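Known limitations

C-alpha coordinates in this collection are predictions and should be treated as such. Users comparing against experimental data should check residue numbering before alignment. To illustrate the layout, the record for SalK is reproduced below. The input appears on top and the generated C-alpha coordinates appear beneath it.
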Amino acid sequence: MSTLPPRAGRRCHNALNPLHSSLYFSPDLGKELGGVGIDDPAAAYFATRAAAMGAVGADTVTATFYNFNHALVSQHVPAIWDIASPAKVLDARLRAADSTLRRLLGAEVIASPEMAEAARLALRATEGCTRHARPLYAAHAGLPVPEEPHLAYWHAATLLREHRGDAHLAALLAADLDPVEALVSHTATGKGMAIRWILATRGWRRADWEDASARLRERGLLTAEGELTDEGTALRKELEEATDRMDLGPYEHLGGPGVARLTELGRGFLATAWAAGAFPSDATG
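Generated C-alpha coordinates:
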Protein backbone atom coordinates (compact mmCIF):
# COMPACT_ATOMS: atom_id res chain seq x y z
CA MET A 1 0.00 0.00 0.00
CA SER A 2 1.37 3.39 -0.97
CA THR A 3 2.49 5.84 1.68
CA LEU A 4 2.11 8.78 -0.72
CA PRO A 5 -0.93 11.04 -1.08
CA PRO A 6 -3.25 10.00 -3.95
CA ARG A 7 -1.87 10.89 -7.41
CA ALA A 8 1.29 12.42 -5.91
CA GLY A 9 3.48 10.57 -8.41
CA ARG A 10 1.28 11.64 -11.32
CA ARG A 11 1.40 15.27 -10.22
CA CYS A 12 5.17 15.10 -9.96
CA HIS A 13 5.45 13.52 -13.40
CA ASN A 14 3.15 16.19 -14.84
CA ALA A 15 5.44 18.87 -13.45
CA LEU A 16 8.62 17.34 -14.89
CA ASN A 17 7.56 15.79 -18.18
CA PRO A 18 6.57 18.96 -20.09
CA LEU A 19 10.01 20.50 -19.60
CA HIS A 20 11.51 17.36 -21.13
CA SER A 21 8.96 17.52 -23.95
CA SER A 22 9.73 21.16 -24.71
CA LEU A 23 12.77 19.87 -26.60
CA TYR A 24 10.52 18.44 -29.32
CA PHE A 25 9.05 21.89 -29.97
CA SER A 26 12.40 23.66 -29.84
CA PRO A 27 14.07 25.14 -32.92
CA ASP A 28 17.35 24.16 -31.28
CA LEU A 29 16.58 20.48 -31.90
CA GLY A 30 16.02 21.07 -35.60
CA LYS A 31 19.26 23.01 -35.78
CA GLU A 32 21.32 20.35 -34.02
CA LEU A 33 19.77 17.42 -35.90
CA GLY A 34 20.13 19.32 -39.16
CA GLY A 35 23.81 19.69 -38.31
CA VAL A 36 24.20 15.91 -38.45
CA GLY A 37 22.14 15.61 -41.62
CA ILE A 38 18.61 14.93 -40.33
CA ASP A 39 16.41 17.74 -41.61
CA ASP A 40 12.90 16.26 -41.68
CA PRO A 41 10.96 17.03 -38.44
CA ALA A 42 9.42 13.55 -38.24
CA ALA A 43 12.78 11.89 -38.82
CA ALA A 44 14.30 14.15 -36.16
CA TYR A 45 11.67 13.10 -33.61
CA PHE A 46 12.07 9.39 -34.30
CA ALA A 47 15.86 9.65 -34.19
CA THR A 48 15.91 11.77 -31.03
CA ARG A 49 13.67 9.51 -29.00
CA ALA A 50 14.80 6.15 -30.39
CA ALA A 51 18.58 6.70 -30.45
CA ALA A 52 19.04 5.38 -26.91
CA MET A 53 17.91 1.95 -28.20
CA GLY A 54 20.60 1.91 -30.89
CA ALA A 55 20.09 1.55 -34.64
CA VAL A 56 16.71 -0.15 -34.31
CA GLY A 57 14.28 -0.71 -37.15
CA ALA A 58 10.81 0.66 -37.84
CA ASP A 59 9.06 -2.24 -36.11
CA THR A 60 10.78 -1.50 -32.80
CA VAL A 61 10.04 2.22 -33.04
CA THR A 62 6.38 1.64 -33.87
CA ALA A 63 6.06 -0.82 -30.99
CA THR A 64 7.66 1.41 -28.39
CA PHE A 65 6.12 4.72 -29.55
CA TYR A 66 2.66 3.09 -29.89
CA ASN A 67 0.53 5.83 -31.46
CA PHE A 68 2.43 6.56 -34.69
CA ASN A 69 1.38 5.11 -38.03
CA HIS A 70 3.87 2.40 -38.99
CA ALA A 71 3.85 3.68 -42.57
CA LEU A 72 5.17 7.05 -41.37
CA VAL A 73 7.81 5.45 -39.16
CA SER A 74 8.96 3.26 -42.05
CA GLN A 75 9.57 6.33 -44.22
CA HIS A 76 12.37 7.38 -41.88
CA VAL A 77 13.54 4.35 -39.92
CA PRO A 78 16.05 2.72 -40.27
CA ALA A 79 17.27 5.13 -42.99
CA ILE A 80 18.05 7.79 -40.40
CA TRP A 81 20.87 5.67 -39.00
CA ASP A 82 22.63 5.77 -42.38
CA ILE A 83 22.61 9.57 -42.07
CA ALA A 84 23.67 9.85 -38.43
CA SER A 85 24.59 7.17 -35.92
CA PRO A 86 22.63 6.91 -32.66
CA ALA A 87 25.70 8.22 -30.81
CA LYS A 88 25.79 11.35 -32.96
CA VAL A 89 22.05 11.85 -32.49
CA LEU A 90 22.36 11.54 -28.71
CA ASP A 91 25.15 14.10 -28.66
CA ALA A 92 23.07 16.47 -30.79
CA ARG A 93 20.06 15.91 -28.53
CA LEU A 94 22.01 16.85 -25.42
CA ARG A 95 23.36 20.00 -27.09
CA ALA A 96 19.80 20.94 -28.06
CA ALA A 97 18.53 20.27 -24.53
CA ASP A 98 21.29 22.48 -23.14
CA SER A 99 20.58 25.44 -25.41
CA THR A 100 16.80 25.03 -25.07
CA LEU A 101 16.86 25.04 -21.28
CA ARG A 102 19.25 27.97 -21.15
CA ARG A 103 16.99 29.95 -23.47
CA LEU A 104 13.72 29.06 -21.72
CA LEU A 105 14.88 29.26 -18.09
CA GLY A 106 17.64 31.84 -18.17
CA ALA A 107 21.13 31.84 -16.69
CA GLU A 108 19.97 32.62 -13.16
CA VAL A 109 17.67 29.60 -12.94
CA ILE A 110 20.21 27.33 -14.64
CA ALA A 111 22.85 28.21 -12.03
CA SER A 112 20.49 28.30 -9.05
CA PRO A 113 20.64 26.10 -5.93
CA GLU A 114 17.05 25.11 -6.73
CA MET A 115 18.11 23.55 -10.03
CA ALA A 116 20.86 21.58 -8.32
CA GLU A 117 18.37 20.46 -5.67
CA ALA A 118 15.82 19.42 -8.29
CA ALA A 119 18.45 17.40 -10.13
CA ARG A 120 19.41 15.55 -6.95
CA LEU A 121 15.79 14.78 -6.10
CA ALA A 122 14.87 13.67 -9.62
CA LEU A 123 17.92 11.43 -9.90
CA ARG A 124 17.12 9.92 -6.51
CA ALA A 125 13.60 9.14 -7.75
CA THR A 126 15.01 7.30 -10.78
CA GLU A 127 16.74 4.89 -8.41
CA GLY A 128 13.29 3.42 -7.81
CA CYS A 129 12.61 2.72 -11.49
CA THR A 130 12.65 -0.82 -12.89
CA ARG A 131 13.74 -2.07 -16.32
CA HIS A 132 11.57 -5.12 -16.86
CA ALA A 133 8.93 -4.65 -19.60
CA ARG A 134 10.05 -1.03 -20.02
CA PRO A 135 12.14 -0.89 -23.21
CA LEU A 136 12.31 2.88 -23.70
CA TYR A 137 13.09 3.52 -20.05
CA ALA A 138 15.68 0.73 -19.96
CA ALA A 139 17.45 2.08 -23.04
CA HIS A 140 17.70 5.56 -21.53
CA ALA A 141 18.74 4.18 -18.15
CA GLY A 142 21.94 2.97 -19.79
CA LEU A 143 22.99 6.50 -20.80
CA PRO A 144 25.48 8.48 -18.71
CA VAL A 145 24.16 11.16 -16.37
CA PRO A 146 25.26 14.64 -17.51
CA GLU A 147 27.37 16.59 -15.04
CA GLU A 148 25.67 19.98 -15.24
CA PRO A 149 22.63 20.13 -12.93
CA HIS A 150 20.13 21.40 -15.53
CA LEU A 151 21.09 18.59 -17.90
CA ALA A 152 21.06 16.03 -15.08
CA TYR A 153 17.56 17.24 -14.23
CA TRP A 154 16.50 16.93 -17.89
CA HIS A 155 18.03 13.46 -18.06
CA ALA A 156 16.19 12.35 -14.92
CA ALA A 157 12.93 13.81 -16.25
CA THR A 158 13.50 11.78 -19.43
CA LEU A 159 13.92 8.58 -17.42
CA LEU A 160 10.80 9.26 -15.37
CA ARG A 161 8.85 10.14 -18.53
CA GLU A 162 9.77 6.91 -20.32
CA HIS A 163 9.24 4.82 -17.19
CA ARG A 164 5.68 6.07 -16.89
CA GLY A 165 5.18 5.95 -20.64
CA ASP A 166 6.11 2.28 -20.89
CA ALA A 167 3.65 1.52 -18.09
CA HIS A 168 0.94 3.53 -19.83
CA LEU A 169 1.31 1.44 -22.99
CA ALA A 170 0.69 -1.69 -20.94
CA ALA A 171 -2.47 -0.05 -19.58
CA LEU A 172 -3.63 0.86 -23.09
CA LEU A 173 -3.18 -2.73 -24.24
CA ALA A 174 -5.11 -4.02 -21.22
CA ALA A 175 -7.92 -1.57 -22.06
CA ASP A 176 -8.01 -2.86 -25.65
CA LEU A 177 -7.36 0.58 -27.15
CA ASP A 178 -5.46 0.59 -30.42
CA PRO A 179 -3.15 3.51 -31.28
CA VAL A 180 -5.78 5.75 -32.89
CA GLU A 181 -8.47 4.87 -30.33
CA ALA A 182 -6.01 5.85 -27.59
CA LEU A 183 -5.44 9.21 -29.29
CA VAL A 184 -9.14 9.88 -29.88
CA SER A 185 -10.15 9.03 -26.31
CA HIS A 186 -7.30 11.08 -24.86
CA THR A 187 -8.20 14.13 -26.96
CA ALA A 188 -11.82 13.71 -25.86
CA THR A 189 -10.71 14.29 -22.26
CA GLY A 190 -9.73 17.84 -23.25
CA LYS A 191 -6.14 17.22 -22.15
CA GLY A 192 -4.68 15.73 -25.32
CA MET A 193 -3.10 17.27 -28.38
CA ALA A 194 -5.30 19.12 -30.86
CA ILE A 195 -6.56 16.88 -33.66
CA ARG A 196 -4.75 18.79 -36.38
CA TRP A 197 -1.45 18.36 -34.51
CA ILE A 198 -2.04 14.63 -34.10
CA LEU A 199 -2.86 14.10 -37.77
CA ALA A 200 0.12 16.19 -38.84
CA THR A 201 2.65 14.44 -36.61
CA ARG A 202 1.40 10.87 -36.10
CA GLY A 203 0.83 9.94 -39.74
CA TRP A 204 -2.89 9.18 -39.51
CA ARG A 205 -5.60 10.42 -41.88
CA ARG A 206 -8.90 12.01 -40.92
CA ALA A 207 -10.57 8.77 -42.09
CA ASP A 208 -8.50 6.81 -39.55
CA TRP A 209 -9.65 9.21 -36.84
CA GLU A 210 -13.31 8.85 -37.85
CA ASP A 211 -13.07 5.05 -38.01
CA ALA A 212 -11.54 4.92 -34.52
CA SER A 213 -14.25 7.27 -33.24
CA ALA A 214 -16.90 4.93 -34.67
CA ARG A 215 -15.35 1.96 -32.90
CA LEU A 216 -15.35 3.84 -29.62
CA ARG A 217 -19.00 4.78 -30.11
CA GLU A 218 -19.83 1.12 -30.72
CA ARG A 219 -18.20 0.30 -27.39
CA GLY A 220 -20.25 2.98 -25.66
CA LEU A 221 -17.18 5.07 -24.84
CA LEU A 222 -17.80 8.08 -27.09
CA THR A 223 -20.90 10.12 -27.90
CA ALA A 224 -22.00 11.14 -31.38
CA GLU A 225 -20.57 14.60 -30.63
CA GLY A 226 -17.11 13.13 -29.89
CA GLU A 227 -17.30 13.50 -26.11
CA LEU A 228 -16.58 10.76 -23.61
CA THR A 229 -19.57 8.92 -22.19
CA ASP A 230 -19.66 8.05 -18.51
CA GLU A 231 -18.13 4.69 -19.45
CA GLY A 232 -15.45 6.41 -21.51
CA THR A 233 -14.62 8.77 -18.66
CA ALA A 234 -14.38 5.84 -16.27
CA LEU A 235 -12.09 3.97 -18.67
CA ARG A 236 -9.71 6.94 -19.06
CA LYS A 237 -9.69 7.35 -15.25
CA GLU A 238 -8.81 3.70 -14.76
CA LEU A 239 -6.08 3.99 -17.42
CA GLU A 240 -4.38 6.73 -15.44
CA GLU A 241 -4.85 4.94 -12.14
CA ALA A 242 -3.41 1.71 -13.59
CA THR A 243 -0.46 3.71 -14.88
CA ASP A 244 -0.06 5.30 -11.44
CA ARG A 245 0.12 1.86 -9.85
CA MET A 246 2.75 0.62 -12.30
CA ASP A 247 4.75 3.85 -11.97
CA LEU A 248 4.73 4.10 -8.19
CA GLY A 249 8.28 2.85 -7.60
CA PRO A 250 10.32 6.02 -8.20
CA TYR A 251 8.05 8.21 -6.10
CA GLU A 252 7.81 5.77 -3.22
CA HIS A 253 11.60 5.60 -3.30
CA LEU A 254 11.89 9.39 -3.11
CA GLY A 255 9.31 9.64 -0.34
CA GLY A 256 6.49 12.05 0.36
CA PRO A 257 8.50 15.17 1.29
CA GLY A 258 10.89 14.67 -1.60
CA VAL A 259 8.05 14.19 -4.09
CA ALA A 260 6.31 17.31 -2.83
CA ARG A 261 9.48 19.38 -3.09
CA LEU A 262 10.37 18.05 -6.55
CA THR A 263 6.83 18.80 -7.74
CA GLU A 264 7.09 22.35 -6.39
CA LEU A 265 10.44 22.94 -8.07
CA GLY A 266 9.31 21.35 -11.33
CA ARG A 267 6.21 23.50 -11.50
CA GLY A 268 8.30 26.61 -11.01
CA PHE A 269 10.67 25.70 -13.85
CA LEU A 270 7.75 24.76 -16.08
CA ALA A 271 5.95 28.07 -15.46
CA THR A 272 9.11 29.94 -16.45
CA ALA A 273 9.54 27.84 -19.60
CA TRP A 274 5.88 28.21 -20.54
CA ALA A 275 6.06 31.99 -20.20
CA ALA A 276 9.15 31.95 -22.42
CA GLY A 277 7.17 30.31 -25.26
CA ALA A 278 8.20 26.68 -24.80
CA PHE A 279 5.04 25.36 -26.49
CA PRO A 280 2.85 26.41 -29.43
CA SER A 281 -0.38 27.99 -28.20
CA ASP A 282 -2.53 25.76 -30.42
CA ALA A 283 -0.89 22.42 -29.68
CA THR A 284 -3.57 21.24 -27.24
CA GLY A 285 -7.33 21.27 -27.09
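For this record: The chain has one domain: 8-275. The first helix runs from residue 8 to 21. Please report discrepancies through the issue tracker.
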